[in-house]
Amino acid sequence: MEIKNILKLIIAIIVCELAGIAGAIFTAPSISGWYAGLAKPALTPPAWVFGPVWTILFALMGISIFLVWKKHSNILENVRMLRVWRWGVAFFILQLVLNVFWSIIFFGLRNPGAAFIEIIFLWLAIVLTIIAFYRVSRPAVYLLLPYILWVSFAGYLNYSIWQSSIGMAKQVPCTMEAKLCPDGSYVGRVGPNCEFASCPAASSE
Predict the structure, then answer these.
(1) Is 194 left (phi over 0), alpha (psi -120 to 50) or beta?
(2) Residue 97: helix, strand or coil by DSSP?
(3) What does each C-alpha distance from 137 to 87, 132, 134 come to in angstroms?
(4) Is the pTM of this model over 0.70?
(5) By three-state DSSP, how is residue 179 classified?
(6) pLDDT by residue (tens digit) across 62-93?
């Protein structure tokens, strides 16, 4: 590989990893705090899995955009392909920015609902990137497949957490009142409507 291509590869990977680091600035403080206390679906991986997975995915993104970047000089005379190349690069940059903003919205602002809407746009941007890259470099597309699969899975986790948070928000906090039962015991308010619990049944003699 030529030195200029090695430099391009290094730059591409570094730029993508920097996007990951930017997102991690908002993610790290919430992982052991706010995120740990959320109700999550059974398929949720341990928190320590996310760091290594995203590091690998950003590296694959870097290699993918490098393969497309390298094709630029070969298509300068082909106006149609050059247009596709430009759209592909634009969509790639867009999805990279949306990736960072998802971390800001979900972990920084702690808003799973808005983050779910944002991750839909992220997913669409990745699909558009894949479609454009397909005409420029097939290997570049293959490198993005693990990424879109992971984002799809992240969308499922995001949606489940959002729905769980809605359910928790609808719960009515019960007051600490108590009712005196015929047997002299007390019962408190329980249930979604904070009704008094039933008194113990009187024992039959």
Answers:
(1) left
(2) helix
(3) 14, 9, 6
(4) yes
(5) strand
(6) 999 999 999 988 888 888 999 999 999 999 99
| Exposure string over 1-19, b if 16+ CB within 10 A, otherwise e | eeeeeeebbeebbeebbeb
- Measured in residues, the chain has a length of 205
**DSSP notation for 178-191:** EEE-TTS-EEEEET
Amino acid identity at 113: G
CATH 1.20.1260.100 domain extents, the chain:
3-170
The fold for domain 3-170 equals Ferritin (1.20.1260)
CB 102 within 8 A of CB 115: yes
pLDDT digit string (tens) for 138-192? 999 999 999 999 999 999 999 999 999 886 655 555 666 677 788 777 667 765 5
